[in-house]
Amino acid sequence: MTLHQTDPAQDAALPPRGSLWQTLTGTDAGAAAQAWADLMFERIGAPGEADPVSVVMFRLDPATRRLLPAGQAPQARAPTPDAISAAEAALEAGRGVVRGDGAAGLAPTAPRPSAARQTVTLALPIAVDGVSGGVAVAEILPLQAGAARPAMRRLQWGAAWMRDRLRSERSAEDAARYEAAAQALHAVVAVAETGDFATGARAAVTDLSTRFGCERVSLGFRRRKHSRLAAISHSAQFSRNMGLVRDLAETMDEAIDQRSAVLFPPPADDPAYVTRAAEVLARDDGVSHVFTVPLYVRDAFIGAMVFERPADAPFTQRDLDILEAVVTVLAPVLDEKRRNDRWLVTKTAVTLRNQLVKLFGPAYLGRKLLLLGLAALCVFFWFARAPYTVSADAIVQGAVQRSISAGFDGFIAAAPVRPGDTVREGALLVQLDDRDLVLDRLRLVTERQRREIEYDRALADRDRAEARILATQIEQADAQLRLVDEQIARTRLTAPFDGLVLEGDLSQAIGASVARGEPLMTVAPLDDFRIQLAVPEGQIADIMPGQTGQLRLTAYPDRAFTVEVEAITPVAEYGDGQTRFRVDATLVGAGALRPGLEGVARIEVEDRRLIRIWTDPIIDWFRLKLWQYRPV
Asked: Which residues form a coiled coil (predicted)?
């Protein structure tokens, strides 16, 4: 029993159903896409509901971001412009798209030509973990209203197969990348576990030869435009006059000169690389497959590695990709190991010789000019004098700061102001939640009214004892009402004077609980300031009350304010990685400032030699360290 009626010619073009399911789960991605299209062509329609016209599976090329048909049914029918347009629209929108007449409630996304009004095009993007991988498109001829909806559901059901297929393919790609990283890590560990470069290089090539099933892996480094072998797998020693060594060196030079990995024999679709040296190596050494990968470190080709395999073990594309990744990771490790393997005296002598040659030899005019410039600067700093100033971080503070605290335990209902806002006296700063208090007041009012009714009844009954008790209870309720009214009034926290809100951003804490006495905001006046300086401990001895200086704030970098040192607090404070002393200063003259502004103040001390200004901190540090570590 079939799900729909199709044209006999179309049925004849479809492969057997059993083979389609086998192909769908096979390893060939193209054949699987075609099998999926054939299967969906059989199932997209339904008898009396809709007939299938075509089914196309588009794959998204990650490099060009273009949709390419991977499978279509019938195979003789090329994707129509309507199918391509719907696929592009679905990919861009990230959701299913229905186009054409007969969509039964699903509005077309674009007007359709009159000649194709009976064809409905369904397009559904296929994504894995949020990354698009393709689009499934089906064209149907609806036989009744509302045929597009069940067809879209069947398309969604079938798309799950391709989604799982894409997920499996990406898992395989991830596995290949993980394998490359693991192999590179093993090679790096093989080098790192050894003490010297020769042992590390031999361990690396031997490990790679074993892991990748190579007959031999060789490593060489470029020196004076020619490669010299550094290590051969499974060989502790080798003679540089051996013919094999010369063939390997020429093979390495061949790849380095072409600045690319070279495979022999080259694949048919590979660019034309010169492989003469690799061919000679394969013929003389009796191997069939040679793969050479240059070592690229610090924008230069410094050597190469040669991998050799027999005829029955050719290199696959996966092997080539992994080997290139391993060599890319291993190259800087081997180069660093080779450089560090030299004697310390040798490295020092080579570095010193290179610098002296650059300084006193030909060329390198910039170095010579730099040395002369440094000498001229030293002479200038020795004789030049300049005002010595002490720089300190500064912050503008209000002379008086009022803390706004919660009068009782409660919850924040509103906070209309934030730090930096200017407020008037009596302005609302914080509103605490008074709903519980209002309910409590309503309860007390109700209780009082009930007592009043009972009191009136007792008077009517001339029950004086009961009346006195009820009168006392009414007075008690009145006292409780006054207390609740006072608490409700205290839910409004207002500004005590005209000022600026310094602290207490409660806009993100609406509904949060507060405890009695908890500070909520800080308000400072607008016209009374003090400047607090943080002077480093090494320069506090130069500061005295009465000294003046200049203050520049971050908000006003082009204006200088005059400040005068008022007092020095003899208490050290640690912060920002150093110890500082607090110094209070006053602002000389009026200034349009705000509490909380920060900047830098420079207090004038005296005129000193420029070189002393620059070197005093360093000399003081050396004196302290010399005394600290000097033997008693």
From this structure: none
pTM, entire model: 0.41
pLDDT at 6: 42
Maximum mean pLDDT: which of 118-132, 228-242, 290-304: 290-304
Structural contact between residues 166 and 128, judged by C-beta atoms closer than 8 angstroms: yes
What's the topology of domain 8-172?
A: Beta-Lactamase (3.30.450)
Tokens representing 479 are 């006292």
Are the C-beta atoms of residues 73 and 41 closer than 8 Å to each other? Answer: yes
The mean pLDDT of 327-333, rounded to a whole number, is 87
Count the Cβ atoms, other than its own, within 10 Å of residue 375. 10
CB atoms within 10 A of CB 113: 9
**Which amino acid, one-letter code, is at 445?**
V
Decide: helix, strand or coil at residue 299: coil
Length of the chain: 632
- How much is the pLDDT for 107? 40
Fold annotation for 402-523: OB fold (Dihydrolipoamide Acetyltransferase, E2P) (2.40.50)
Tens of pLDDT, residue by residue over 274-285, are 889 998 988 888
193-340 CATH, one of 1.10.472.10, 2.40.50.100, 3.30.450.40, 3.40.718.10: 3.30.450.40
Buried b (16+ CB within 10 A) or exposed e, 434-471: beebeebbeebeebbeebeebbeebeeeeeeeebeebe
Sequence-ordered list of residues with C-beta below 8 angstroms from that of 319, at least 6 positions apart, any chain: 212
DSSP three-state, residue 164: helix
